[in-house]
Design a protein that fits this description.
The protein is of the alpha+beta class and 593 residues long. The chain is 32% helix and 31% strand. The protein has a 7-stranded mixed β-sheet with strand order 20-19-14-15-16-21-25, sandwiched between helices. Helix 1 packs antiparallel against helix 8. The longest helix is centred in the middle third of the chain and has 26 residues. The radius of gyration is 27 Å and the shape is globular. The chain starts with a strand and ends in a 9-residue tail after the last strand.
């Protein structure tokens, strides 16, 4: 049975979004009463930087006792000074920890972790610590805007945390757990709805729609199809929506994308440096001078990366940091000799040519372009009216050029909004005050649970057959057919259009003497899955249900399963219709819409 789920606003007064990124993170907020008249508000200037940008660096500095010494730009600025001033006390500088959610190889019961200076750092705890710091900054700034502390109650806040749509369920669950540890919400089940995990391309789509509407563009009239290419630091997410006038955005095909963000261009640059200056020297430089190494990669290289336009005569030079030069002089003098021979006697810089940059960029950009092509293929013959390119990587002239060249003839317009790196952040805050703006999504996975179904001769395998005599004994009532064990009961299939208010309810007969039951929820990418033991089927959630009473009229004993496919997450419940016991999954899993 499919019914509707109303979107409850409780007594929310404000939506605060945190865009936690691979390289940069920030916050934005919007009051519910301002949703139709004002854009979300965000911090555009962070401490210890001269730049105006809506996000600070996703970097954190710990002292030897594990306490946070500094974060953001301040962490990078203070680390070398602290190291020089206190030789007897060690400090640990950590960056790029978001990527470890899907790349981390070392794992324990809390998920991935890293070792630094003999200390173990859980990625879950790192993210929670960083989210807590952003939260405290946001609340402080908002309090000052309101005129003082205590004027905003925690229960009036709906928190919105952005996540890539291509992430797996385990990564998304870690983000929700990190939000709880950071104090965004409490751990009680009733607190869960105060946090929305907002899919990054959906947030970007909301922002782009609002930008066009504020500019009174007729391009987003009813029926228009828009593609969002959200090219961030770690991931690229690509969604396609149809504009439904007066209703919102209707996703037409499942989200595409992958791990093709600008971070992988940085990785190729690091490999280029390792070939040019030797891997041993670069490893030594990173280990001994992590902040100087980070500056080389994320400041010096970032400026070059964002200016590269792929013209044949393009040239640039990178001055070798003094401390790296000292390492080369002391331990790798032959590298400097080779560099001088290749560069006309100059071994103080690294010269970059257009050919070098093509080697660094092309593998990542080509994969990104391929993912966008896949979305056009999935659209089949349906036209796409506007392609929006957003995200930090969208500021690359090369990527802009390639997108225009490859898809300029496939769409009527390619649009890069102002502040493309802030599109997800601003859209997430807008989504928080009006989550129903995305009226339907396409499920990337098939969701359901195992059950017994009538056996179909010639279709179901014999080893799954349960004779009707055994079933009759189990349920203490006469059955007229054999049953098949381990069938996958599909609630929503991969690729299905799922309205944001969809609720699917199923009823299952259980043995009359059963008083407790473990309910397991499953998922798979196969839209036509038939059995629970097929390849690719995964357990994603589990809960215990108490069923203490038998029906008074001696009818069959039953339980109900309810799955809510509303907003950006899927929630599941097991229900005893007699006692009224209603158990929410102990694993609130995020959908891969």
């Amino acid at each position: 049975m499919v019914s509707s789920l109303s979107l409850r606003d409780r007594n929310y007064r404000i939506a605060i979004a945190i865009d936690f990124g691979t390289a940069r993170s920030g916050y934005a907020y919007q009051f519910f009463e301002d949703k139709d008249v004002k854009e979300p508000i965000f911090r555009n200037k962070w401490p210890d930087t001269n730049e105006f940008y809506p996000k600070t660096l996703t970097e954190i500095l710990f002292s030897s006792d594990g306490t946070v010494e500094a974060w953001g730009h301040t962490a990078r600025k203070r680390f070398p000074h602290l190291t020089e001033e206190a030789s007897d006390k060690s400090y640990i500088f950590i960056d790029n920890f978001k990527t470890l959610l899907h790349e981390g190889k070392d794992r324990d019961e809390d998920g991935p972790f890293i070792m630094r200076e003999g200390q173990k750092f859980s990625v879950l705890r790192l993210i929670a610590e960083f989210l807590k710091l952003v939260k405290e900054t946001a609340l402080k700034d908002i309090s000052e805007t309101l005129g003082g502390a205590g004027l905003l109650d925690e229960n009036e806040i709906r928190w919105c945390l952005t996540v890539p749509a291509v992430w797996g369920e385990d990564s998304k669950q870690i983000m929700r757990r990190a939000a709880e540890l950071a104090g965004l919400i409490g751990e009680e089940s009733q607190e869960a709805e105060r946090l929305l995990l907002v899919l990054e391309p959906e947030a970007a789509a909301v922002h782009c729609q609002q930008v066009m509407m504020r500019q009174k563009e007729s391009a987003l009239e009813n029926g228009k199809v828009i593609m969002i290419v959200d090219a961030g630091g770690g991931t690229v997410d690509i969604t396609v929506h149809e504009v439904k006038g007066g209703q919102g955005l209707d996703e037409l095909i499942p989200c595409g994308g992958g791990l093709h963000g600008s971070k992988y261009v940085d990785r190729n640059f690091r490999e280029f440096l390792a070939r040019k200056l030797s891997a041993e020297a670069m490893d030594k430089f990173q280990a001994e001078w992590p902040v100087e190494y980070a500056k080389l990669i994320s400041e010096t290289w970032e400026n070059i990366k964002c200016s590269y336009d792929a013209t044949p005569n393009w040239r640039a030079s990178i001055e070798i940091p003094r401390r790296l030069e000292k390492i080369l002089e002391d331990s790798f003098p032959e590298v400097l000799d080779q560099l001088a021979n290749a560069q006309g006697g100059d071994n103080t810089v690294i010269r970059l040519t257009n050919q070098d940059m093509e080697t660094i960029f092309n593998s990542v950009v080509n994969q990104l372009i391929s993912k966008v092509k896949n979305q056009f293929t999935a659209l089949e013959d349906r036209p796409c009216d506007i392609l929006f390119l957003v995200g930090g990587f969208a500021e690359s002239p090369l990527l802009k050029k390639r997108i225009q060249e490859e898809f300029g003839s496939r769409v009527k317009r390619v649009v890069i909004p102002d502040r493309p790196g802030a599109a997800v952040l601003l859209g997430a805050a807008s989504f928080g005050v009006e989550p129903g703006v995305v009226i339907a999504r396409r499920s990337r996975l098939t969701y359901g649970k195992g059950c017994m179904s009538p056996f179909e001769n010639g279709k179901d395998p014999e080893d799954k057959r349960i004779p009707k005599e055994l079933v009759s004994k189990l349920f203490q009532q006469e059955e007229d057919c054999d049953y098949c064990n381990g069938r996958f009961d599909i609630f929503v299939g991969a690729g299905d259009r799922v309205p944001n208010d969809a609720v699917v309810t199923r009823s299952y007969q259980i043995p009359p003497n059963q008083t407790e039951l473990t309910v397991t929820f499953l998922s798979t990418s196969n839209p036509r899955v038939r059995y629970t033991d097929e390849e690719g089927v995964s357990e994603i959630a589990q809960t215990e249900l108490r069923l203490p009473f038998a029906p008074k009229d001696k009818s069959s004993k039953r339980m109900e399963i309810e799955m809510q496919f509303g907003l950006s997450e899927v929630v599941a419940y097991a229900i005893d219709p007699i006692s009224g016991n209603r158990e929410r999954c102990n694993f609130r899993f995020s959908s891969s819409y």
